[in-house]
Structure formats: structure tokens, C-alpha cells
Amino acid sequence: ECPEITAATRWFMEPVDYLTMRFSATASATHASRLASWLTDNRHLSLLTYDEGLVALVGLDAARLAPLLRLGDVVGTVCPEAAHACALTTDALVVTGVPDLHAAALGSGATRDYETHLALSTTSWISCPVPAKKTDVVHAIAAVPGLSNDSYLIANNQETGARALEWFRTVTGGPTPASFDELTELAALSP
Description:
- The chain has seven helices and eight strands, in the order αααβαβαββββββαα.
- A hairpin with a 6-residue loop joins strand 7 (141-145) and strand 8 (152-155).
- The chain has a four-stranded antiparallel beta sheet, covered by helices on one side. Strands 1-2 form a two-stranded antiparallel sheet.
- With 191 residues, it is an alpha+beta fold.
- It has helices spanning 3-8, 15-24, 52-58, 80-86, 100-108, 163-172, 180-188, and strands spanning 74-77, 93-95, 117-120, 124-127, 129-130, 135-136, 141-145, 152-155.
- The chain is globular.
- This is Carbohydrate kinase FGGY.
């Protein structure tokens, strides 16, 4: 859509990888961070390459995709500019970042196979680590690159998720919508 922006772009990367690059001055990505682009073969997490067929299908130059590292690999140290801006030392290590699905699993503590967590945010999902890749196209559920370099996480997304609660609050609240605490109190009254 914007050929001038595309022509001027050095790296096509996800926001989490951009932040990692800003901290380390080194471009990198992982199977997990590139998940939404569908440019890696997620059946083989040990292959740190983009899938040539998928890259060709979308018409990108593979040389403009950030090099793939393993989840948790050290990318480098904090670059001087970031160290100064964030009051960090330049010997602090920067590791590959994780997307929201992975951050939610880590934050919930559900990190072992089949330990389940529920995330409620603008979108929502139920997920858990699993030991193998599997996809259920009919139910829109897939095992995607997980919390380690040899595991997977269940991915299923309800796009409106908890945003639906905000909508409900707005349309039923009249001139002064109920607070989320008040909605929680009302929900507790339900049999």
C-alpha cells in the first residue's frame, strides 16, 4: 500500500522485536515473535530460517527479515543510547522478547505442559503449553511455537474478548456507565 515506506524499510519485524532492537541495536526475531506473519515452518522449531515458499508467497525479500534466534537467546548488551535513556548499564544483557500469548502464560505461572491459563484483555484466550504441534482448522485452534525451543502453546483467540464487557457497560449504563467494580458486584449477585 505504501511503496515508499516499504522501499525505505530495512527490517520487517514485529513490535516486540523492534523494542529488542532498540535496546540492543541488533535486529532479531524468533519463531514465536514471527508467528503472526506465518513466515516460518513451525513444525521444525530447530530450523532458524524463514520458509522460502511462504516468504515468496507474500513477496518479501528474505534479506529484510530479522535473523531468527531461539526464544530466550541473548541478542547482545544494552546499546549506549538505550542505556542512557533508561538509566541502564551497557553490560546488561538483552534477550529475545516474547509476544502477548507467551507473556500471559509466563505471567500466569502456567508453564508446564497442560497447565492452563485464561487471558482476558481486549482479546481473550485460553491456552496451555503442549509438547507437540497440532492444528484443528475446524475449531481455529493451533499449537504454535511455545515457551521453549522444543514446545508449543495452544493458540485460540476470541477477538472481542473482554472488550465486550466495555461495550456492555457503555450500552447499558445510561448517562453514567457503571464502573467495572460495580459490574463485578452485580455479576456476583447472579445465581
